[in-house]
Fold these 3 entries.
Entry 1:
Amino acid sequence: MPDGALAKGLEQLAAMKDHVLQLDSALSQLAKTSGLSAAELKNITEEAFRMGDAAGESGAQVLSCIASAHRAGYDIRQSMALAEEALKMSSLSFGMDDAADAVSRLNTILDSFGESADFASSINDGLAAVAGSGPADFDTLAQGMAALSESASCAGLSFEETLGLLSGAYAVLKDMDQVAGGEPAIFSMLKESYGSAGDVYGILDELSGVWNTLDAPARETFAISNAGDAQKEVFAALMDNWAGVESAVSSAQDSVGAADQASALCLDSLSAKTAVFQNKVAQLSAALMDSGILRFFLDL
């Protein structure tokens, strides 16, 4: 065999070995926390490759994502469902390279609203739909939702209403840190001022009707009385763009399938196709390792 061909073959074997080691590491993480049998781990590995092909990620990455979800307290079925949505979230995000980060973000939102892992698909759909029709991109909305979800839930707001309030204020202020940082204080002040007179979203809806009847000086006083001096700009942004808030809420409520549609476009990318190819190599590597053929050549 020519030296060049031999070197090339050894290089390919080394790459295959790397794939196997990555799989082994991911499986070890899952085995330590799940208590699954070898047969069950094999079935999950096969499902991980399927999920990886669909999401443009490697099987090892999917397994690592499942392990992250399981460590967060979900059972294996829920962990696989959450991992699938985390992969989708990371594919739609420009700022999240690691699906484990997406697991953490989804878990924060799910915990805040008291939802099960099955609701993760609604989170992705809502974010994708509002991002597709509004001023804030997917990452910006996801960041704001993770920061605001606990306060919003405590104020009795739904996930969709929270998305609307984030998008509506951001359209005016163009600063998600200001919006997500200021709205909790507004929620708290409204609850304190109006008590059981209505839910926070309903209160804001009624206040928007009053806002439209006021002149500029009166609006300043109205904003301070309802939101405090520190958050009067955020409150005014919500009032000025209440139609945008309602539109975003409507988009979130009618968003089934939005994330899948957006993700399908991402899967046409070269990086996603490369990941699918690497998945095939990893599957072949694992099969060869199981058969002993690859181990023989690696030893040689």
Entry 2:
Amino acid sequence: MSLTSSPLLSTRRTFLQAAAFGAVTASMPQLLRADTAAAGDIDAHVHVWTPDTDRYPISKKYKKADMQPASFTPEELFAHSKPVGVDRIVLIQMSFYEFDNQYMLDMIAKYPKNFRGVAIVDETKPDVCNTMRELKKGGVTGFRVYANREATESWVDSKEMGTMWKCAAENGQAMCLLANPDALPAVKKLCKKYPDTRVVIDHFARIGVSGRMEEADLKNLCDLANFKNVYVKTSAFYALGKKKAPYTDLGPMILRLRDAYGANRLMWASDCPYQVEKGHTYAESIALIRDGIDGLTADDKAWILRKTAENVYWS
């Protein structure tokens, strides 16, 4: 699920874009220079789905009309990622399918060298830990949870969520949080309670959705750097700040997080298909990290574009 498509966040409908899937923009030499387009980069956050709802039925919470764009298959994804040197991708279970991870699992099985997965499971089930272990055999190395403030505060004392966080630590799987900024204090409590659990904060904890990077929110996100197993995705540029390429207004936030966490705990992600709608392109997203921020070293870029995601999802 993407920044724009969480069913548990109040701004879902505001940001879920209804535009049809845009054609890949491959004629942008300033973004695809050979000296910056290093092969082998990793996109740490993409959703895929198929219009074949007979074979892969969607949750009763959704209608087929909610699937916008109507299709975003791996093959459609590769048309954007491969021309700019991205050959590995972390698939994030799409909300349309809820707890049925089968389409994602089948795509990982089809392209095992290219994909790892972040699944959605029901933590209230008594066998959730066994489910998590079994999913790891299918390439699932993380689990997505919708971390709005109310839910996250309830998890601190939740036996069911506690089981999930402990099991993730035992399995070497990450808890991947689609968090709102106001949930960060409760996330801090969870990280303190489960210090061995690897935690990934998606999309800068959605700081900047309003158009502004609030200082209190940034401080709360930077404070989580004190927990060695917390990572942050620098992602979903289309939806943050000025929401306009080349997205350089996000550079100061990225540098601040680099200083707090180190580049080895930051990872780039596109949040496709949403990054390639409404006139935005895949190439513009990765170009921000490759070329758009003065102050990122070559080593920083290597970590943010490949090595961090490799350690979290492929190790």
Entry 3:
Amino acid sequence: MKIRTALAGLALSALATVGLLPMAGAAPAQEPGVGIDIIGGGFATDAPWAARLFTDGQEFCTAALIAPTYVLTAEHCLTQRPGTVKTFRIGSLDQTSGGVTATAVDFWVNSEADIGVVRIDRPVYTTYAELGGSGDVQVSDIVQVYGWGATCTDRPEIECQSQFLKVADLKVTKLNGADYKGGVAICAKRVDGIPAGGDSGGPMFAGNHIVGVASTSDRDKHTCYASVVHYRDWIYAVSGI
């Protein structure tokens, strides 16, 4: 998952390559000798809406299909590497095979938050991720986050992207936190896992509803997701969803 603050200084690093910006002032956590996935958590077993985002064929971010031709992800996943061809593998738990592949033909990013909507070149018919609204998430709720991101903290994150979709539980700590752009975010702390580079743009689910999009993480205990609940009207304005 992605988090942003010292991004300028990381521009040439694998962290910048796979996204999920670090939280302000936080360095990636080091956990020598610990097996790390998502980081932590387990493998997802059912996610027909899941989408892996590639830029010029390289694994980059996570996303979610919210309608036949619309994908929800993070703003930084769409703008960090301008001029690249953005493609998705949708509906497969394995980022290397299966599902349906589609190409981005247009996208919109929110002016104040780390959230973006992509239109793809073909319809994908499956079970879509349902967007959350007011009341769907509260402080202290246990939520689930998904991504194909880094499973390590001891080497460049691009070297340890998960082949299979991961899922982890988090506990919501605030509904009015800040994402890397300063937009309204849902922040949470680790229960059995935490997002890392490559999980950026991935969904946070409260029950059956997406309530957030991965923006920042300290790779250890804390993360913030751009609030889908707060920006629900904007998503509707650009996509009709």
